[in-house]
Amino acid sequence: ETILQDMQVTVSESIATAIINIKTIILVVASLLTLLIIGINFRISKTISDSARHLADTVKKIEETGDFSIRINNDSGDEIGQISTAIDQLLGSTKSMIINTGEIICAISNGDFNRQIENESKGDLEQMRLIVNLAAQRIHGAMQALVKNIENLSQGNFERVNSQVDLQGEYLIA
């Protein structure tokens, strides 16, 4: 009977020790998982924060410099990456319209009145394109009428001089 009691005590102690060991293992695993989750959460938060900071810094730099060639270049698949891509595309469209408008104005100042902005845009940039093209067409029409009148005047065809040229707007001479 003593041996049986000793065995029961030994088995009970072994079971108690095993339960303590299992509890300890569960506690260690739970602690490690908690630390892992905290680490992953910190890393995700830092990535989002860094992306948002880069986005804000780049947009601020564009605003300060007026340089539409600056790009955010965040091609991550998250929402900040999508916002960055959309802003980069908008900057490209705006820069292209500014360059095209400048080229038209430069061409007009050099006597080339036939130029138009060909690339269609969206929204306000399309409105700008249409207005610039309309202005170029009107200048072209006015210049054609002036050239025709100058030719008639130089040839002495005073009766063919058209004083009723349809020019829109006021032409103020400073």
Question: Could you write a compact summary of the structure shown?
Answer:
This protein has 174 residues and is an all-alpha fold.
Tags for this entry?
174 residues
Fold topology:
Blueprint: H1 2-65, H2 79-109, H3 123-154
Q: Radius of gyration from the CA trace?
A: 39 Å
Kindly state the mean pLDDT as a whole number? 89
Counted by DSSP, the helix tally is 3
Bin the strand percentage.
under 5%
Number of strands: 0
- Describe the largest sheet: none
Secondary-structure element series: HHH
The poorly predicted ranges are none
Shape: rod-shaped
Straight-line distance between termini: 126 Å
> In which range does the helix fraction lie?
over 70%
SS content category: mainly alpha
Describe the structure.
- The chain has 174 residues and is an all-alpha fold.
- It has 3 helices and no strands.
- It has helices spanning 2-65, 79-109, 123-154.
- The termini are far apart.
